[in-house]
What we know:
The protein is an alpha/beta fold. It has two domains: 6-139, Response regulator (Rossmann fold), CATH 3.40.50; 157-211, Orthogonal Bundle (Arc Repressor Mutant, subunit A), CATH 1.10.10.10. It contains ten helices and six strands, in the order βαβαβαβαβαβααααα. The N and C termini lie far apart (50 Å).
Amino acid sequence: MPEKTIRVLVADDHPVYREGLAVLLGSIPGIEVAGTAADGGRAVERAADLQPDVAVMDVRMPGLDGIEATRRIVADSPHISVVVLTMSEEDATLFAAVQAGARGYLLKGAGQDEIVRAITAVAHGEAIFGPAIALRVAEFFQGAASADDPVFPQLTPREREILSMVAAGRSNTQIASALQLSPKTVRNNVSNIFAKLHVADRAEAIVRARDAGLGR
């Protein structure tokens, strides 16, 4: 019995990349491009209308970003598997995508075979990440498993996450966007971090955090 054709939605705000990827995927036996979308809001609408098997999603798009679009698509249609295909190598973006329900995460430097393999895998219920991304996911969970004595134990896990992003040079606005929090919530967390670490400002907090190995 022949394999069922995998129907794919391609969402990316760069027209050349979006259409190029659609043409490429449409040339692969067993894959049909059901449609394309130029931003996250349109991706949500087209996913609801077309009901593809897989949505290939960029992250940074105008209006609704790919993380929130993924969250809405998965909430509305849990059978649609999302593969994030992005330029972003940041841990915060990776884990935000996974938390939103993405089943795959590839960088845009991935080759055709890797993209097709990821689409096929998630369509069959698997989760798949590019080699470099998979290594970082493994390191993250290994670190979580051995976090009996975390750095700055006086901080909550969320505060440590935000401090790590502060140490990496992210602004409050960028942190709020990556973690899907309000700017006010991030500001409050940063203030709590400063108080708990007994530091006077952001620069001092960054020095303390980097000395402890965060934000690298």
